[in-house]
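lol forgot to send this yesterday, sorry. struct tokens for the thing we talked abt
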């Protein structure tokens, strides 16, 4: 049985670190979406990708 690793902050969590890189990738990917989706689908996807890190920090 292995010992549990403890973190001193949510910033040490791998999932949080990955959540910080996610919005950058999402932004690049959504630049190729059709312009008529700018205020509906693109905006929603970008906002939700940015909220992941905040949700982890809050938990």
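and heres what i got for the seq, position by position
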């Amino acid at each position: 049985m292995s010992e549990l690793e403890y973190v001193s902050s949510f910033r040490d969590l791998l999932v949080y670190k990955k959540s910080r890189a996610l919005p950058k990738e999402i932004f690049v990917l959504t630049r190729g979406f059709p312009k008529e989706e700018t205020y509906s689908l693109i905006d929603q996807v970008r906002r939700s990708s940015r909220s992941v890190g905040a949700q982890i920090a809050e938990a």
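Residues 38-58 form the longest helix (21 residues). anyway ping me if u want another try
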